[in-house]
Amino acid sequence: MLNPSASIPSLSSRAEHTAAQAEGFVPAAIAANTAGISLRSLTKKYGSVVAINNINLEIAAGSYCCLLGPSGCGKTTTLRMIAGHEAITSGEIWIGDCRVNTLPPAKRNTAMVFQNYALFPHKTVWRNVEFGLKMRGVSPPERTKRVDEILEVVALKDLAKRKPHMLSGGQQQRVALARALVTRPQVLLLDEPLSALDENLRVKTRGELRKLQRQFGMTFIQVTHAQDEAFSLSDQIVVMDQGQIDQVGTPQTVFSQPASKFVAQFIGDNNIFEGTVLQVESNDQGAVIQLEVEGLGRFSCYGQAANVGMAAAFCVRSDQMTLILPGNRTTRVNTVTANQICARITAVEFTGYVTRVSLMLEATGQEILYKILTHDWVTHRLQEGQLITLSWRVEDSIFLSH
Ligand code: ADP
Ligand code: MG
Description:
Blueprint: H1 19-22, H2 28-31, E1 37-46, E2 49-59, E3 64-68, H3 75-83, E4 90-95, E5 98-99, E6 110-113, H4 125-135, H5 140-153, H6 169-181, E7 187-191, H7 199-216, E8 219-224, H8 227-233, E9 236-241, E10 244-249, H9 251-256, H10 261-267, E11 270-282, E12 287-293, E13 297-303, E14 311-317, E15 322-324, E16 340-350, E17 354-360, E18 367-373, H11 374-380, E19 387-391, E20 397-400
Parallel strand pairs: 3-8, 3-9, 6-7, 7-8
Antiparallel strand pairs: 1-2, 1-4, 4-5, 9-10, 11-12, 11-14, 12-13, 14-20, 15-19, 16-17, 16-19, 17-18
Magnesium ion is lined by residues 75-76, 223.
């Protein structure tokens, strides 16, 4: 349980930061109050619709985990099953060392922040936050103490008497957060908590969420369809597609080594080339795999294992390609063996720091994307319609078996 005598650092004004906060102060009693999650062969069917198809997942106690995937892939369903708001069809859910399959939500030591916040419109901020404690039969003096304490943490103390319609989106989001945290859960479940906020506030609130999770040390499981959110928040990202898990890994791994064509596409700005495996050279780290791409020739990429003759693909990030100007060999290109293509510029999009160049491979008609620093792009004076050569290192092309 949260130690009532422990002073909880405030998220509010930067000036109020104590030395303890700067070091990521975590009251011992709070840090201990956390639990890991284990989903085992978990399945959810709605009639004939299989929303979650036999997933297995381990989430470490005290970690920040994001369920990432497109709309309809089963993120909310998974979260609601962990919370106990949705019955499971088969499989097991463990919270810490407790199998919670049929346990009612209030007994699971979880709390949920809903996508639409679901605040009571006629109650004040203070009463909204108090509600869960009242339902749990917490005594009035203890309720007062805990509500005041948590409103301090989320910087809402001055707005305690307001009703939700008198708050900005960001403030409403913090009320929803306070209402969940005040019950002192071991696991906090957040369903797209930032989706209703504008971009600047989204980035700011994201930072606050991460800080809060570190301070409290409890397990956060957050649903999101936004890659940047998952990348910036997570210790562990779970990429989901059509009720299944495609990849579990750190943000760095998911970004640089997508495990499937779906993940490569979803993470974005990857160019994917489909082909047939010609040759596999295994070494200690994995294998260098050679693929034949119809119309384009042979390419080498890194992977774990592959069978000669199998249909497969590889991806290369649009920012990992190098432009080769006629007669100009950069140092980077010198390390390349064979990964090179010729493509025609079809569109140039200025996005600020980076310019996005769309290209078409004349041999196959495939469209690809090349990202380059605007500062560098303008020096090349290239135009739509021109043919250019792009090259990339073997170690930057990732083999995709499916
Ligand atoms: P996400 O949160 O990733 O957008 P959901 O978990 O809400 O996806 O939904 C996963 C799938 O389950 C979707 O195909 C959705 O239509 C279906 N689904 C969700 N809730 C219900 C329900 N109550 N009845 C029938 N189908 C549902
Ligand atoms: Mg959802």
